[in-house]
């Protein structure tokens, strides 16, 4: 028995989009905290810390996000935890975002000219104060466009959480499609929702980048 | 140089002492057995060809560079193992760089206030008063709320000088402070440095501004290939250089 695709079906997909947004926000917030830790560790003069952070980045950049989702999801079961797709998706995406943001931000921190460190050092500022008041504020400006760009990637990546059974917008689409078998309409709508979420951010990222390029070539 | 000939502003007390300082970058011997004594109030100009180790030498004084061998004593403090000594040395020594190295995300005033507040624990109002005082002294009080990028090179370098002075250092190091400036801005920075010298600041300046050297230096040091080749008062240095290398160098820079 095929259902008709109507308003209810549309609303089902649309309301599931809030889980996509929420998952993206959680992963981004967690990834921002994790990414800052990874980036600071990466530029640290403590070899062990820097290497550990480097290894973390390599692992998460060098394996598919889907495998990371599986490993967290099924790994948690194996270890005897309750396997909630919600938590598994949030954890896996947070770890993944930490690695990518950490690597982006490491580059931004290192893009701040060495003379800034020297001037701060000559004034007697210590490492933490130099980082906080001199380096990070400048790195932040450099980091803004690529960070917003990464957020777009992250929103799209949350669609993979559908595979472990988390009902965000993609999985909502699959459910409706199984009932109505109107794949073109259903996935067209799902894609449109992603586009509406991502396009303003892509646009913002491009604008920031242009403004940044203009500011640095002046 | 005997004490009898010493200029009045120079006191007997030795404020910087470098003994047998050696430094290598990998296998490259960049400082070769440097011995240098600087007295309180003394103004020293260091010159020499590019790559001779001038920057490296003065950066060893405030430990932006680490010398592998020898002793460096600044205001009776030797670095040793303690990071507290490093703090003490950095508090006594201000530095001005060729590329200004102002903090671009902070206003001129904030550039001057940051270190006093974060390093010395000065209150905000006191730090601001000090900052305004020194901005006045380098004659750009009206630029206090601008960002460095809005200033000319000469103005930026004067801010950098004010920023260093706000820490109330006993010694000021200058590493080619006018080399990155357009010719018309060199004078305003040199004038600021002359004022500072007249106020009795102990200064070590790496510069090729020989007019400045003649005017304020108590001693000129010529470096080549990591060595102090020759030193003397401006008079003897310019009119009667002892070494062939010094004569060649002077010939080159005084000819244009
Ligand atoms: N971090 C470094 N690693 C390796 N070599 C270096 C480093 N810094 C400087 N050197 C080398 O050490 C030598 C001395 O450098 P230094 O900057 O002290 O010279 P300088 O006299 O200040 O020259 P300039 O007039 O060009 O500023 C140069 O040959 C330079 O290439
Ligand atoms: Mg130099």
Automatic annotation (TrEMBL), chain A:
It holds the Pfam family BPD_transp_1. InterPro entries: AA_ABC_transptr_permease_3TM, ArtM/GltK/GlnP/TcyL/YhdX-like, MetI-like, MetI-like_sf. Residues 17-205 form the ABC transmembrane type-1 domain. It is a multi-pass membrane protein. Keywords: Cell membrane, Membrane, Transmembrane, Transmembrane helix, Transport. Coiled coil: none annotated. It is found in: Cell inner membrane; Cell membrane. CDD domains: TM_PBP2 (cd06261). NCBIfam families: HEQRo_perm_3TM. This is Amino acid ABC transporter permease. It comes from Microvirga vignae.
């Amino acid at each position: 028995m095929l259902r008709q695709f109507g308003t209810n079906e549309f609303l089902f997909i649309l309301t599931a989009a809030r889980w996509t947004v929420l998952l993206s926000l959680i992963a981004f917030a967690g990834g921002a905290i994790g990414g800052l830790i990874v980036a600071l560790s990466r530029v640290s003069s403590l070899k062990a810390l820097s290497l550990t952070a480097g290894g973390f980045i390599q692992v998460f950049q060098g394996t598919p996000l889907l495998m990371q989702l599986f490993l967290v999801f099924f790994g948690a079961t194996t270890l005897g935890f309750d396997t909630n797709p919600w938590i598994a998706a949030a954890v896996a995406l947070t770890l993944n975002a930490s690695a990518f943001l950490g690597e982006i931000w490491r580059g931004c921190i290192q893009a701040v000219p060495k003379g800034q460190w020297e001037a701060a050092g000559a004034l007697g500022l210590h490492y933490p104060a130099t980082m906080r008041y001199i380096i990070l504020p400048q790195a932040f400006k450099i980091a803004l466009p690529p960070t917003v760009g990464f957020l777009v990637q992250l929103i799209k990546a949350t669609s993979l959480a559908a595979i472990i059974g988390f009902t965000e917008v993609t999985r909502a689409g699959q459910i409706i499609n199984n009932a109505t078998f109107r794949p073109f309409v259903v996935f067209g709508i799902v894609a449109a929702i992603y586009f509406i979420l991502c396009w303003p951010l892509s646009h913002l990222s491009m604008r920031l980048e242009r403004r940044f390029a203009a500011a640095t070539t002046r | 140089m005997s004490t009898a000939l010493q200029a009045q502003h120079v006191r007997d007390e030795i404020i910087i002492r470098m003994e047998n300082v050696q430094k290598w970058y990998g296998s490259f011997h960049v400082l070769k057995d440097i011995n240098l004594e600087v007295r309180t109030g003394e103004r020293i100009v260091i010159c020499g060809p590019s790559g001779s180790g001038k920057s490296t030498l003065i950066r060893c004084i405030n430990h932006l560079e680490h010398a592998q061998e020898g002793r460096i004593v600044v205001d009776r403090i030797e670095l040793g193992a303690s990071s507290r000594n490093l703090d003490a040395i950095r508090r006594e020594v201000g530095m001005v760089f060729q590329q200004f190295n102002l903090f671009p995300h902070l206003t001129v005033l904030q550039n001057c206030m940051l270190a006093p507040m974060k390093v010395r624990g000065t209150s905000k109002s006191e730090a601001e008063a000090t900052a305004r005082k020194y901005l006045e002294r380098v004659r750009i009080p009206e630029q206090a709320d601008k960002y460095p990028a809005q200033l000319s090179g000469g103005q930026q370098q004067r801010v950098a000088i004010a920023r260093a002075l706000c820490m109330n250092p006993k010694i000021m190091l200058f590493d080619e402070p006018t080399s990155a400036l357009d010719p018309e801005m060199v004078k305003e920075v040199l004038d600021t440095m002359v004022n500072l010298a007249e106020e009795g600041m102990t200064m070590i300046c790496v510069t090729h501004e020989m007019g400045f050297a003649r005017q304020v230096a108590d001693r000129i040091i010529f470096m080549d290939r990591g060595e102090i080749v020759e030193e003397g008062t401006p008079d003897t240095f310019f009119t009667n250089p002892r070494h062939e290398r010094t004569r060649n160098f002077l010939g080159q820079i005084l000819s244009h």
